[in-house]
Amino acid sequence: MSVYQLIYVSTPNENLKISEVQTIVCKAKFDNEKIYISGFLCANSKFFIQCLEGDEKVVKDLYGKILKDVRHNNIHLVGEREAAKCSFEHWGMGVVLRMERHFKILKKYMVGGEFNAYNLSYDECLNLLVAFSKIKS
């Protein structure tokens, strides 16, 4: 059975605190399990990168809510597609905050010594999120 995946990148509101992101993720884990959504979020002070997985209509509805969320801006849809299986099936919503602490993972996606999530392709975003999901921090 296939699953619908959607990946987006955005910029956190400059006033958003890490503790607020942690609260959002805790609520998302609870809410997502009820609607059979899985996913993973990587964040730092400059970028959010998130993959959502599940039923296509449910994922698109959730993304519609994300587009209206004032806690971030410059929301860019990296892509969406049917996948053969979930990449984050064990996560209601997994998260790595302060992703800059994991330089070994990030350096693969840097250009000229800089990491810019907006320059990543769909597959690069997915591979980055999967790599972060394996460290479970």
What's the overall geometry? globular
Helical run tally = 4
Please give the number of β-strands. Answer: 5
Helix content: 25-40%
Order of the strands making up the biggest sheet: 4-1-3-2-5
Rounded to the nearest angstrom, the distance between the terminal CA atoms is: 29 Å
**Helix-strand pattern:** EHEEHEEHH
Largest sheet: 5 strands, mixed
Average pLDDT level: 84
Structure description:
The structure is a single chain. A hairpin with a 4-residue loop joins strand 2 and strand 3. The longest helix is centred in the N-terminal third of the chain and has 17 residues. Strands 4-1-3-2-5 form a five-stranded mixed β-sheet, with helices on both faces. With 137 residues, the protein is α+β, with helices and mostly antiparallel strands. Helices cover 34% and strands 28% of the residues.
Notable traits:
alpha+beta, 5-stranded mixed beta sheet, 28% strand, 137 residues, 5 strands
In short:
The protein contains four helices and five strands; from the N terminus they run E-H-E-E-H-E-E-H-H. It is α+β, with helices and mostly antiparallel strands and 137 residues long.
Layout of secondary structure:
Elements: E1 3-12, H1 18-34, E2 38-43, E3 48-54, H2 56-67, E4 72-83, E5 94-97, H3 103-106, H4 122-135
Parallel strand pairs: 2-5
Antiparallel strand pairs: 1-3, 1-4, 2-3
